[in-house]
Specification:
The chain is α/β, with parallel strands linked by helices. It has a single domain (about 35-60, about 85-245), classed as 3-Layer(aba) Sandwich (Rossmann fold), CATH 3.40.50. It has 8 helices and 10 strands. Strands 6-7-8-3-9-10 form a 6-stranded mixed β-sheet, with helices on both faces. Strands 2-1-4-5 form a 4-stranded antiparallel β-sheet, covered by helices on one side. Strand 4 (about 60-65) and strand 5 (about 70) form a beta hairpin. The chain is globular, with a radius of gyration of 18 Å.
Length: about 250
C-alpha cells in the first residue's frame, strides 16, 4: 500500500524558555492510502495540535511530517500555500462555509482558484453532490441549510480537488445524532472510494466509523486499535474499553 502520511519523531513545544509546555512528545505513526484513521485523547492530550501540524496550520518544533512523500515541515511561502490548497482537504466543526456564496459556489471555489474550466467544475460538483446527497441544496445559501447539510457541503468542498489527505476536526461536533450518523456514513463511503481520512474526535461513536483509532495521552501514543473484521458495535465497545483505561469520562475528558 502507498504511504500517504508519515509522522516521524514529531515534537511540539509552546511557551517561553522559562515556561515550556510539550504538546507533542516524540510521536510517530503512518497512514496508508485509503485508510480512515481517528485520533482520540483527553483535552490537552495534543491531538488537535497534531492535526494542526499535519494541516500546516502550525509548525513542529522538531521531527518531520511527510505527505505523499514530501516533507511538509520544509515548505514555506507560496510552496506551502500551494500544498495546502492542492493536497489537503479540511472539514471543520463549524463548517467554515462562506455565507455570501451558495453551496454550489462554496464547493466550486477551490476548483476555480486552480483554474479548472466551468464545464469540468460542473461535472465534478454534480458527481460529488450525488455521492453526498446534497443535490437539493446546491442553490441554497448556508443560512438556508441544516447543520447536517452544511457539513456535507463542507465535506464536498474538502474532497472536490481530490486531495491526498482529508483532515477532519471534530466533524460531528456541531451536529445532532441523526445528522452525525448520516455524515459518518458518507465519510465511510468516501473511504471505500479510496479517500484517505484522518479525523480528530472526542466521541467514541464517531471514532467507531474509522478503521483504526490512535489514542494519545500527554503528547504520546497511548494505544492503537484496528477494526479489522469487527462490527461497528464491537469496535465501539473496544474504544470504550480504551477510554476507560485512559481514565477519561466520555462527556468530560474526551
Amino acid at each position: 500500500m502507498e504511504n500517504i502520511l508519515k509522522v516521524q519523531k514529531v515534537e511540539k513545544y509552546y511557551g517561553s524558555r522559562s515556561s515550556l509546555t510539550k504538546a507533542i512528545d516524540n510521536l510517530s505513526f503512518e497512514v496508508e492510502k485509503g485508510e480512515f484513521v481517528a485520533i482520540m485523547g483527553a483535552s490537552g492530550s495534543g491531538k488537535t495540535t497534531l492535526l494542526n501540524c499535519i494541516g500546516t496550520i502550525d509548525k513542529v518544533t522538531s521531527g518531520h511530517i511527510f505527505v505523499g512523500g514530501f516533507d511538509i515541515t520544509k515548505l514555506k511561502g507560496n510552496e506551502l500555500n500551494k500544498f495546502r490548497r492542492e493536497e489537503l482537504g479540511f472539514i471543520f466543526q463549524d463548517f467554515n462555509l462562506l455565507d455570501t456564496l451558495t453551496a454550489y459556489e462554496n464547493i466550486a471555489l477551490a476548483l476555480s482558484i486552480k483554474g479548472v474550466n466551468v464545464k469540468e467544475i460542473d461535472a465534478k460538483i454534480k458527481r460529488v453532490a450525488e455521492e453526498l446527497d446534497i443535490k437539493d441544496v446546491l442553490n441554497k445559501y448556508p443560512y438556508q441549510m441544516s447543520g447536517g447539510q452544511k457539513q456535507r457541503v463542507a465535506s464536498a468542498r474538502a474532497i472536490i480537488t481530490n486531495p491526498k489527505l482529508i483532515l477532519a476536526d471534530e466533524p460531528t461536533g456541531a451536529l445532532d445524532s441523526k445528522s452525525s450518523k448520516m455524515l459518518l456514513e458518507k465519510l465511510e463511503f468516501l473511504d471505500k472510494l479510496g479517500a484517505t481520512i484522518l479525523m480528530v474526535t472526542h466521541d467514541a461513536f464517531t471514532a467507531s466509523y474509522a478503521r483504526r483509532v490512535i489514542f494519545i495521552k500527554d503528547g504520546k501514543i497511548f494505544k492503537e486499535i484496528h477494526k479489522g473484521n469487527d462490527t461497528r458495535k464491537v469496535f465501539f465497545d473496544k474504544i470504550i474499553d480504551v477510554v476507560t483505561l485512559l481514565g477519561g469520562d466520555l462527556n468530560d475528558a474526551l
